Amino acid sequence: MKKGLALFIVLALMISMFAGCSNNNNSAEASGSEQESVTTEQTTGEVQETQKVEVDTETLILSEAPELAEKVGTGELPAVEERMPKLEDIMIEPVFDSIGQYGGDLRFPWRGKKDKWTLEKMTEEALFRFKLDGSGVEPNVAKGYDVNEDATEYMIYLREGMKWSDGVAFTADDIVFYYNEMVLKETFGKSPYNCYYSVNPETGEKTLADVTKVDDYTVKVKFADSSVLFLERLAIDNKWMFAPKHYMEQLLPHIVGEAEAMKKAEEMGFSDIKTLGKYTGYYYWIVQDRPTLRPWLLKTDTEAAVARWERNPYYFKADAEGKQLPYINSIVCQKIESSDNIILESIAGNVDINVFELTDFTLLMENRDAGDFRVTQWSGTDWAGNAVVFNQGVEDVKLREVFTDIRFREAMSVAVDRVELAALVTDDLGSGQQASVPEGLVNFKEGWADKWSDYDVERANTLLDEMGMAKGSDGFRTYKDGSDFELNIFQIEIDSTSEMGEFEALIKKYYEAVGIKTNIKVVDSTYGEELIQSNGIVAQTFVPALFNVALRPDNIVPIRNYRSWYGSYGLYYSTHGEQGEKPEGDIALLQEYYNIIQSATDKEVVDEYSQKIIDLHEKNQWIIGYTSPKPRIVLVKNNLKNVPSKLIYCDEFRGYGHSKLQQYYFGN
Amino acid sequence: MVPLVFVTSMVVFAVIQLPPGDYVTTYIATLQAEGEAVDQKIIEDLREEYGLDQSLPVQYFKWMKNIVTKGDFGYSFSYNKPVNDVIGERMASTLLISGLTMIFTYVVAIPIGIYSALHQYSIGDYIATIIGFLGMATPNFLLAILLMFASFKWFGDPMMGLMSMEYIDAPMSIAKFLDICKHLIIPVIVIGTGGTCGLIRVMRGQMLDELDQQYVLTGRSKGLEEKKIRRKYIVRAALNPIASSIGWNLTKIFSGSTITAIVLNLPTQGPIMLGALRNQDMYLAGTWLLFMSVLTMVGTLISDIVLAWIDPRIRLMDSRM
């Protein structure tokens, strides 16, 4: 009896195991057939444009959210006409789909302070912001500008009647104060941004700009030499060029004295004056009660179980019908411990918008009805989905000789079967290609994506043989002089989640098939950062992303100690030769071209040399890419409207912010 | 005990500094990831600001001095708040969840253990053992994920966190209380089942040992009720090892089962401490480790006391000596 019972239980367990397995197969088939009905076309860099509006603002009749109207009724707030700039200076925000209605709370979970930049980008109001397709900047906080012939003098016009979120007027004083008392005096822990310097084309000397007030609503920015791209660089480096003078002058130590500043720091819960300066001057959007111009203001602690960003009653934008924006009442951020939790909450329908990785695509698509949401794809500015770089400035002399040899890079590129790799790593949602500027961005070149992208093991072997790296008895290649050759590829973790290791394991397989002994080293982000700083990375899996060489080249031009593929050449440039190593050849050319761009006196020169830098990358292919750039999978709740279905999602365009959250609304 | 605490604190402080880099390196890595450019000068300024450029003994001495004289456990770099605030914020929910799961574990395990022993080799015994072993063998976080997914599939709501979003800022009410109870089901089951198995088996084993003892036979022959024998003699003796290990649960209560808490999004201490260790947030991590070691020692003391209370033999042994 006992033996019989035991046998029965064991059989029951085994049967349930097999039943479980076959269930998995069924669901895999089901999701497979669903996949077939969805297009797996790669989105190009097209953007959805907003609706064109021609509005004569002087004839607008302003209206506001019902909650604000109530407060006006009880006298808590002034009327909407007094809270917004005067009619002819109001900014009209065009919408993506339709004029919206007030109401609703946007649910967006976050990890507290760790995700402060995500919320920053969502609510950012820069002086000038990037146009939707990134082709230039357009006025935002500023009303407009004028620039003289040789780009040495900019006149920036502000909006009359515009106010800070506490009702105090926003004027030219705020810009001048920010520049002179905060930027120049380095009160928030940063040295003056690159954009405020102009470069002398002959001597290469950099001088800071002069910012002065012309009248209450006009500011003059004067440079010693031409600064053709000043506004674009401002939009990248500093974004906002203002701070509330009435608030900051009460806590800057060089104005009120150290004792008073320290007292204020303690009142606000900061440990010392430097932290006070850093938070009120730089990370200001998470400091409660610090006046801003943003559509929503943080009203709770960042680590609260639910952080709330409430509507700013003094926001300066309206829609084409005169309704003061934003439509949505508040952004509600539930605190979560790790990003894994978001996807479960999302498919349960508790999240209104979020961006996911390609690997979550199937799960999201399967649960669209259950969670009542739609899935769109936004494009990024990555050059590839997966790529490998070999440190061109690696300290080991023998390794450097190998890495800087273009035949080695070609060999490692053609040794990999991109079709198979893409099928495995991206579940066939992506394809194989070379690392190149993606379509839709400036500098895109037809055909670059196919360079060295054939699967040609013979050619790889031929090239490596030509280099003198003969195969040893164990099947692995050696240096020219016969010593063992080993390739250590580093993989730096970004956070504890996601599919680490698949791509690397496959690369190792392909490399070793042509005789290159490969080891994959996974390091956490802190240690990885240290290695980069000390030029300890030999090779790395790394994907560059950038939308414009002239404005943010650090990923592909060595101008500071930032990326591993250019060794210490970047450090050499940023310390003006004091540290790091002097580059030669094409890498030195990269730095030279960048210098020319910085001191250019007109846009044609900028464009010409940007293209030259890109051409150098195409010629040398320092970054070897294997799969196509991964689109960003976006989950949007079905009742959330005015969310563009195509967008370029990148850091320079401020992520979600580029989709203009202030015009999102909840409809049916 | 006090010298032991000091030695532990020194070891703890040294261990935290062992991984390469320090908080500033982590901080810079974070800044880079966020897209900020960091120059060398800032790096040096930061080191000075956080006091990380001074030698280890100096840092330790300053930290200890503040703890002993002011009760100030230092400043958390990543949270930009005093350590006391960071830990204090989550104490209540940690104690709630851990306390409940501990009570659940003991209340469920001990009776099952007793039943198992008294009805050895019966169906009930086997079922209890199987479930117990399943709970022990499955990793807690996996069980948590499975239960959350099951809850999502059948009830449409994964029950993450301590309560639903509507109730988080609302004042306490019947509805809120019920909501919290609903959310507590999964954590209590997950964390509880992990611990019950061991207890069941220990209880069962101890009981079986005691059942054959001389004094039980004597009691029975003298005509004592079976129930009284069980309660006053067998169970009390069998509880010995369990009582002696209660104290060690003290640390578990205060850390709140880290991985499960992260998966279930519970606002307990565990995730904070994990974050502190990964970011090399020196004072926060150091304080927590110090706290844990002190708790372990206090726990052992508590165990001794509980044991002496339950088992008169130990009291008598002492007085005879």
Summarize the structure.
The complex is a heterodimer of chains A (668) and B (321). Helices cover 32% and strands 15% of the residues of chain A.
Structure description:
The complex is a heterodimer of chains A (668) and B (321). By secondary structure, chain A is α+β, with helices and mostly antiparallel strands. Chain A is built from 22 helices and 24 strands. Chain A starts with a helix and ends with a strand. In chain A, 46% of the residues are buried. Chain B is mainly alpha-helical and 321 residues long. A two-stranded antiparallel ribbon of chain B has the order 1-2. Classes of the chains: A alpha+beta (668), B mainly alpha (321). At the A-B interface, α1, α10, α11 and α19 of A face α2, α3, α7, α12 and α13 of B.
Features:
heterodimer, A: 668 residues, alpha+beta, Dipeptide-binding Protein, domain 1, Dipeptide-binding Protein, domain 3, five-stranded mixed β-sheet, four-stranded mixed β-sheet, 22 helices, 24 strands, 15% strand, B: 321 residues, mainly alpha, MetI-like fold, 2 domains, two-stranded antiparallel ribbon, 2 strands
Report the portion of residues of chain B in β strands. Answer: under 5%
Specify Rg of chain B, calculated over alpha carbons: 25 Å
Q: In the CATH scheme, what's the topology name of the domain at 387-625 in chain A?
A: Dipeptide-binding Protein, domain 3
Q: How many beta-strand elements of chain A? A: 24
Helix share bin of chain A: 25-40%
**The biggest beta sheet of chain B, please?**
2 strands, antiparallel
What is the helix/strand order of chain B?
HHHHEEHHHHHHHHHHH
**CATH homologous superfamily caption of the largest domain in chain B:** MetI-like
In the CATH classification, which architecture of the largest domain in chain B applies?
Answer: Orthogonal Bundle
* C-alpha-based Rg of chain A, rounded: 28 Å
N-to-C CA distance of chain B: 23 Å
Report the top-level CATH class of the largest domain in chain B: Mainly Alpha
CATH 2nd-level architecture of the domain at 387-625 in chain A: Roll
Distance between the termini of chain A: 64 Å
| Largest interface between protein chains, with number of residues from each side | A-B, 48 and 50 residues
The oligomeric state is heterodimer
Backbone structural class of chain B: mainly alpha
Low-confidence stretches of chain A: 19-44
